[in-house]
Amino acid sequence: KAGVTQTPRYLIKTRGQQVTLSCSPISGHRSVSWYQQTPGQGLQFLFEYFSETQRNKGNFPGRFSGRQFSNSRSEMNVSTLELGDSALYLCASSAHPSGSVQEQFFGPGTRLTVL
Amino acid sequence: DQQVKQNSPSLSVQEGRISILNCDYTNSMFDYFLWYKKYPAEGPTFLISISSIKDKNEDGRFTVFLNKSAKHLSLHIVPSQPGDSAVYFCAAWHDMRFGAGTRLTVKP
Prior knowledge:
The structure holds 2 protein chains of 2 kinds. By secondary structure, chain A is mainly beta.
């Protein structure tokens, strides 16, 4: 069974630009969550999608948005990039929505650098 | 707000000894706790979990202890092996919150 895949793996952007990251969950998984990992902050929850609907949202500004497609693939978009957005963005999939506690399977992440 | 805290950014132990990683939380709504292990260039992988109705869960060399009154949990690895060297994240569920991670180094 293929794992969670994220593209691209590395990305360099400049301030003010926008970026779109992609996540393909494990086959059959319908829940996709996005996290931001920065040194010292650990993993911070961005949002979760299940069956194309956003179920939960973390405490991030509106510049961070996402969506999920009918095949469960998800995209995350960050507009008007800031230097502080440089981070590793991780996507995790699970078979069930967040209302049920399940282990999440993480992708390798996309490392975004904002110059 | 840091509702889940791992106050030790790093820990170094000798091979064969016990590794103890600690995690504190503030939200009494958390009812499920998980530990993840992360190697460089890989996503975190699930290690072990514990429900708030238990105070201990064991899986091979890994044991998680939960002290609800103290809002504290710990991960014990016995015996520690060099392959255990990684960053360990504690996570708490009500909505998923992670600690900042502890980098464990096990020296041969």
